[in-house]
# Entry
Amino acid sequence: MLRIALPLVLTLFVLVPPAIAASPTVPPPQTLHIVRAGETLWTIAQSHRLPPDLLAQVNRLPDPNRLQIGDRVAIPAAPSAAATAEKRAPTATPDGAVHLVVPGETLWNIARRHGTAVETLVRLNGLSDPDPLRPGQRVRLPAAAAASLQKRSVPGRRAIAPAPALRPRWPQWPSRGIITSRFGFRGRHHHGIDIAAPVGTPIYAVQAGRVKFVGRMGGYGLLVILDHGGGLTTWYGHASRVLVAAGDEIRRGQVIAAVGTTGNVTGPNVHFEVRRNDVPLDPLKFLQTR
# Structure
């Protein structure tokens, strides 16, 4: 019996190869980025022109904010321009156009790409929670963004990027305190910086301008927005009280509010943003080093 079973087992092994003999799936090509001093997942993603969410997903980072010097970050190969254009090709609608979401994209990425505001896309698409976007999801764009897309897609016309505006270095900071959170990706994108200070600490206008908005706005709590012209605005959130009104003309260094804990906070601080055409920019690139 044993002499019959052994050849049978050998025959079955030859006819039915092990599962590991199957053709393996070839992983997408990628390179490694070695983290240097001062780098964050956001700056690494920007340098490789990739969404930070995609890097966090590819590297399975439990906390993207805790990168260490010398860490290896896998950088997936960017899709070809033709493939990307095909995936992102807008579809005409009565109100404008539709953006098809590709893996790793966020609503903030889409708003920045099409020169509109996250709040506009949230309102236009009726999104109760703007964070979880699915690949292939259709995001409606406002008519102005659609018109811009049509101009950029005219055959034979070469898009010319506008000359970058010189960024001033502002000596006046929004408040005295310690920076507890910086601009960039931290699970979701943080549009500004947080400066921790005791409740009641003065909040200053970093530049002269006009008060565009005063009031409560979601997680910002009690918020002041100053318009400095040329599409440039500064935002001051989580205030305990406001000392200005909409339409007021403000000078640089004027006290406009006081530090508080309104909105989504873990402690008293002022949340400070710089935006150009409603696109958030890194405030530390505008403020003079203290």
About this structure: The longest helix spans residues 2-15.
